[in-house]
Design goal:
With about 325 residues, the chain is of the alpha/beta class. It folds into two domains: about 20-240, 4-Layer Sandwich (Metallo-beta-lactamase, Chain A); about 240-310, Arc Repressor Mutant, subunit A. Helices cover about 25% and strands about 20% of the residues. It has seven helices and 14 strands. The chain has helices at about 60-70, 90-100, 115-120, 200-210, 230-250, 260-265, 275-290; strands at about 20, 25-30, 40-45, 50-55, 75-80, 105, 140, 150, 155-160, 170-175, 180, 220, 295, 305-310. The strands form three sheets. A seven-stranded mixed beta sheet has the order 1-2-3-4-5-6-7. A five-stranded mixed beta sheet has the order 8-9-10-11-12, with no helix packed on it. The mean pLDDT is about 95.
């Protein structure tokens, strides 16, 4: 597999509904950034009663673009699905639901699905976290793994995929053997995991869960272009994470290191502005390694704490 499998030359129009395949349109929100690439992809599924997947940020222009898609009849929107409650995906769901009468469907609020380990870690907020969380998010309907929701001409089945965020869901579009993958697997970059809302141990399990779904031919991600070979990207994500784990353990084999020391040693080719985000990924790896009894520290909530390998760990 190529060292860089990502699709970089993606330049969609912003705020215009583009037909991707019959029955599916994409509207890109006007929130491009280093973390969101060209902006959040909002998908409109169906030809009669419509499902909106990831309404996006609370933006007037984006709301107007979504409402114009169903021939200026908001009541044609029957369902609003949210993959996860980050501020670039979920806030507009509230206004859209009020205007259309459609329910918001998701796994749960912004703490739903959080593991006991991450809940314990969240008790001490000295190491940050909570970046980009929509704290007020609350769906009208909470979805469990494997639920099938049927609309006019479409069926979406939920796949719980915590990791990038504790309440993350993917939605399998059964009629097309496709998946709306949110931020779990994207075409534009690897996925950020920032504790306690992100959980690397859960993320790796979720990758495994998606890898065995050999029927899925296309992923429609929350950012970037569609993925025509999603399983290759899943494999890349796994390889990438194992590489980062090895880099961390190689550094710790030379002696104890702090999160920032590890980040500076490992992320040598990224812009300085992205180093804080990189440090969150390092922390995610350290928490995963601690859960596997491979790494230890005196105080996980001390920003200057040194981490060390456990003799015979793993």
């Amino acid at each position: 597999m190529a060292d860089d499998p990502f699709i970089r030359d993606f330049d969609p129009p912003v705020g215009l509904a583009q037909k991707l395949v019959p029955g599916l349109r994409r509207i890109v929100a006007p929130n491009a950034s280093a973390m969101t690439f060209t902006g959040t992809n909002t998908y409109v599924l169906g030809t009669g009663q419509l499902a909106v997947i990831d309404p996006g940020p609370d933006d007037d222009a984006h709301l107007s673009a979504i409402l114009q898609t169903p021939n200026d009849n908001p009541r044609d929107i029957s369902h609003i699905f949210v993959t996860h409650s980050h501020v670039d995906h979920s806030p507009l769901s509230r206004r859209l639901a009020k205007l259309t009468g459609a329910p918001v469907l998701a796994f749960g609020n912004s703490q739903a699905g959080r593991s006991p380990a991450m809940a314990k870690f969240a008790e001490g907020r000295t190491l940050g976290g909570g970046e980009g969380v929509d704290p007020d998010f609350q769906p009208d309907i909470c979805l469990a793994d494997g639920e099938a929701i049927k609309g006019q001409g479409w069926t979406l089945t939920t796949i719980t995929t915590p990791g990038h965020f504790c309440n993350h869901l993917c939605f399998a579009w059964e009629e097309e053997n496709a998946v709306f993958s949110g931020d779990h697997v994207m075409s534009c970059s690897t996925t950020m995991v920032s504790p306690p809302d992100g959980d690397l141990s859960a993320f790796m399990r979720s990758l495994d869960k998606m890898a065995v779904r050999t029927q899925d031919r296309t992923y429609y991600p929350g950012h970037g272009a569609p993925l025509a070979d999603p399983h290759a990207m899943i494999a890349h994500q796994r390889t990438h994470r194992k590489m980062r784990e090895k880099q961390i353990l190689d550094q710790l084999s030379r002696g104890p290191r702090s999160i920032w020391q590890l980040t500076e040693a490992i992320y040598t080719e990224i812009p300085k502005a992205l180093m804080p985000a990189a440090s969150r990924n390092v922390l995610a790896h350290l928490l995963d390694l601690m859960g596997r009894d491979m790494v230890t520290t005196a105080d996980i909530h001390d920003a200057n704490a040194k981490f060390a390998q456990v003799d015979g760990g793993g």
